[in-house]
Amino acid sequence: MKIKILLLLSIFTLGSSVDSQAQKLKKFGSSIEKKIGPKTIKVPYTEVVSYLGYASPGNEDEVKDGKKFYYIYMWVPAVATELGVRMKSPVGKTKVKNATKSKAYEENASSDEYFDTYITLERSDIISKDKISEDGVKNANWTTLDRNDDSSEMPKQPSGSSYNSLLRYKSEVGDPLKALTVGLYRIGFTTYKKGEVKGTFLAEVAAPIKLPGVAMAKTIEELKKGL
Ligand SMILES: [Ca+2]
């Protein structure tokens, strides 16, 4: 009997350690690879900006093609080589340093609700700082450079599915439509599913080098303060 209990206990412990590992988020590696002994690793991005949010009916920034979008705006003052974006839901026990927390997240941090994430990287035709305003952003033309639904590099969701998202976008020098030129960008965080979604999420935007003067914020008002 004792043996059985011990066995059950060890299965239980094993189960919970697998579960906590599933929540562990590795450093955000860039596309630059380095050999360390027999291993090839992705060199982590130098600059990472983290945002903790909570998606629930009515608190989205925009509804586009039936999907609820949350945006983070970014001013890029110099030509960038690469940008990385990733998103995970739920936040769970993931530890994140220096993250901006939305009010909705703080009020729902213990929620275990989650959803199938989806990310986009968009660039606007605003290339001058003084054109950045609420109206300017609404009337700007936005080009989607890249998007991602599911990435196997991300931790699995509690359901066991790899539905979290990650993308690395490399500037295509010489192609003005695909290069990471100076301008106003935004990262869209949404869900694969259309309609109502609910759950906590972690969103991160990263660059391989510190770009002096890069500003990132949840709203245009906050972005302007940081410029
Ligand atoms: Ca997904």
State the main characteristics.
alpha+beta, five-stranded mixed β-sheet, globular, binds calcium ion
Please give the structural blueprint.
Elements: H1 2-22, E1 29-36, E2 39-44, E3 47-55, E4 62-64, E5 67-76, E6 82-88, E7 100-101, H2 103-108, E8 117-124, H3 134-139, E9 142-148, E10 165-170, E11 183-191, E12 199-207, E13 215-217, H4 220-225
Parallel strand pairs: 3-7
Antiparallel strand pairs: 1-2, 3-12, 4-5, 5-11, 5-13, 6-10, 6-12, 8-9, 8-11
Bound molecules: calcium ion.
Residues 116-118, 149-150, 163, 165, 192 line the site of calcium ion (CA).
Question: Would you give an account of this structure?
Answer:
- By secondary structure, this protein is of the alpha+beta class.
- It has a single domain (24-225), classed as Mitogen Ypm (Jelly Rolls, Sandwich).
- It has 4 helices and 13 strands.
- The protein has helices at 2-22, 103-108, 134-139, 220-225; strands at residues 29-36, 39-44, 47-55, 62-64, 67-76, 82-88, 100-101, 117-124, 142-148, 165-170, 183-191, 199-207, 215-217.
- The strands form 3 sheets. Strands 4, 5, 8, 9, 11 and 13 form a 6-stranded antiparallel β-sheet that branches. It has a 5-stranded mixed β-sheet with strand order 7-3-12-6-10.
- The longest helix has 21 residues, at 2-22.
- The termini are far apart.
- Calcium ion binds at residues 116-118, 149-150, 163, 165, 192.
